[in-house]
Automatic annotation (TrEMBL):
<dbReference type="InterPro" id="IPR006311">
    <property type="entry name" value="TAT_signal"/>
</dbReference>
<dbReference type="InterPro" id="IPR038607">
    <property type="entry name" value="PhoD-like_sf"/>
</dbReference>
<feature type="domain" description="Phospholipase D N-terminal">
    <location>
        <begin position="47"/>
        <end position="142"/>
    </location>
</feature>
<dbReference type="Pfam" id="PF09423">
    <property type="entry name" value="PhoD"/>
</dbReference>
<dbReference type="InterPro" id="IPR052900">
    <property type="entry name" value="Phospholipid_Metab_Enz"/>
</dbReference>
<keyword id="KW-1133">Transmembrane helix</keyword>
<keyword id="KW-0812">Transmembrane</keyword>
<protein>
    <submittedName>
        <fullName>Alkaline phosphatase D</fullName>
        <ecNumber>3.1.3.1</ecNumber>
    </submittedName>
</protein>
<feature type="transmembrane region" description="Helical">
    <location>
        <begin position="15"/>
        <end position="36"/>
    </location>
</feature>
<dbReference type="InterPro" id="IPR018946">
    <property type="entry name" value="PhoD-like_MPP"/>
</dbReference>
<dbReference type="GO" id="GO:0004035">
    <property type="term" value="F:alkaline phosphatase activity"/>
</dbReference>
<dbReference type="InterPro" id="IPR032093">
    <property type="entry name" value="PhoD_N"/>
</dbReference>
<dbReference type="Pfam" id="PF16655">
    <property type="entry name" value="PhoD_N"/>
</dbReference>
<keyword id="KW-0472">Membrane</keyword>
<feature type="domain" description="PhoD-like phosphatase metallophosphatase">
    <location>
        <begin position="155"/>
        <end position="487"/>
    </location>
</feature>
<keyword id="KW-0378">Hydrolase</keyword>
<dbReference type="InterPro" id="IPR029052">
    <property type="entry name" value="Metallo-depent_PP-like"/>
</dbReference>
Amino acid sequence: MRNAPRGDGWSRRQFILRGAATFGVAGFGLGGGLFARPRFDAYPFSLGVASGDPSADGFVLWTRIATAQSDAAFLPMQGYEVEWIVAEDERLRRVVRSGRGVARADAAHALHVELDGLAPDRWYWYQFRCGDAASPVGRTRTLPAAGASVARLRLALASCQHYEHGYYAAYRHMLGDDLDLVVHVGDYIYEGSWGPQVRRHESAEGASTLAGYRNRHACYKRDPDLQRAHAAYPWLVTWDDHEVSNDYAGLVSAYDEPSDTFAARRAAAYQAWCEHMPLRARTRATLRMYRRFAFGDLAAINLLDDRQYRAAHACAERGEMIDAGTCAELGSPARSLLGTAQQRWLDDGLARGDARWNVVAQQTLVAPFVSRDEAGAPRVWADGWDGYPAARAHLLGHVAERRIPNVVTLGGDVHAFYACDLKADFADPDSATIATEFVGTSISSQGDDHDARVRDLDLNPHVRAYDGRRRGYLRCDIGHDAWRSDFVALDDATDPRSAARKMRTFHVENGRAGVQT
Ligand SMILES: [Fe+2]
């Protein structure tokens, strides 16, 4: 059994049972009972550890008891008592919190622990123990206190990590970046298979049931580079479509699944997602994935959910290229992308924002991208913001009207790097640039048609840079006076040991919207 070394803090610890962060061991509907001192014949922390959703005084810790064989079904139907500690040092000697929780069978033996009352703006280390086994040691941090003067924030933006298309060398390179946060904007798992296969999912069958989605999450979480990135940094995660099904919209399947069947499928996928991500209990209970994180006076990060509440596609079943000129329903103001409540929440948050940078981290490309079809006629992609032009006009109209400064949108989904000027009126290239956009390429999912996009750049002068050839991530180094974004590209995502290099660097100056090269 591969046991991680155990810090001294375990022997000296005193359990402090604090409020809702810990559980007693009785009365939790544990079905077959509770294993307080289980003996495993395989390492039970095979999915690693994770942390996320930091506040100024805490964060969420996550693990799941699962052995290497495969999935929850291999473990008996009872709960496991799991102990945890949080320390101020990486050797886990100065323990500041400890407790026990129950990894319940009805939660796939996942465990979430919410910490509070910790010091702001500092790193902590943590570890879980179950029976004789100790988890890898994870590292995480609290946010700076509200309004505190903060000089710097470094984050990596990740998206689109089809397991079969490549390896996660991108995550290995993030370990050397000295980040504060990893922000993942969706397509964390893929429900199905297509394209190149350098390795295989745990099953050739697509995920569509609770057991299937759980097994798919476990398959991804077993990747060692992904595990290390989760153990090294707190993550802010939101979802896109492939966590459920390609190009779904609200409760509408892109593949003619009857609505009640699809609703049950989506609920199963959401449940598995919540079980496997470091999310707070209220987020898991409400499925409200849009949330805000303040990094002192430097940045407010608005994390969005553009899948759960969106209207059905216009003039398309799914992400097809459509003719905006003839699709009458496309521009209907009734067709929302974010849903009314989230849009209002975002409007209010941006209008009230007093941080230097107003970050909107969401799924995909906000800027329009007009492509030519084979006959040379203009087409737009129905599944992105181009499929919801009224939603985009509302967001950018709000930024322009309220003169909200230093808005930077971050996105993924399109498997390519973009740096864009977001305009008050995209039809008029001379209109004011009111915000800045960066999109990160995919971690591993196969790229789009780079050459075709390059040919269409003349139709999209607000796109200041584009590159769809490489997999990798976007690295952002954010200061009071300037924002820097690097396109970090892998040489070859099909090689787990691939090198990475910085392809391009862009800046945004405080008070001046738009990309500077
Ligand atoms: Fe994707």
